[in-house]
Amino acid sequence: MKLDPDLRLRIYEIAGIYASRFSIPEPKVLLTTREVLDMPREMTEGARTSAYKYLGLSYNKQNLIFINVRKISNDKDLENTIVHELIHQRFPYLSHGKRFNKLARQGLRGKKFLPYQKRK
Ligand SMILES: [Zn+2]
What we know:
This protein is mainly alpha-helical. It has one domain (5-108): 2-Layer Sandwich (Zincin-like), CATH 3.30.2010. It is 42% helix and 9% strand. The protein contains four helices and three strands. Helix 1 packs across helix 3 and helix 3 (75-90) crosses helix 4 (98-108). The protein starts with a helix and ends in a 12-residue tail after the last helix. The structure holds zinc ion (ZN). The site of zinc ion has 3 residues, from helix 3.
């Protein structure tokens, strides 16, 4: 997709809506690899120069996500990617797999999640 100011605003809105449903603070959303590289190094540790390879990334501890708009071809994939990254933020201990996919589907359907509580 081509990133223009309208699309940028729309992405921030979608991220805001899902963040509130998932009971997480609204993340900072990066939309170009340039924006990833412009972040302080410690914020994007682990994926900086490799960011272009992915549809999206979640920097869990930083309340920061990257949505690789260039690599995304339509609205549906855009929403899927945003929800995917926000599920990472809400369920930071969870890796990819069946349970992850189920939560992502529920999230897309509008399910609300209670705030994350660190397990003791
Ligand atoms: Zn993921």
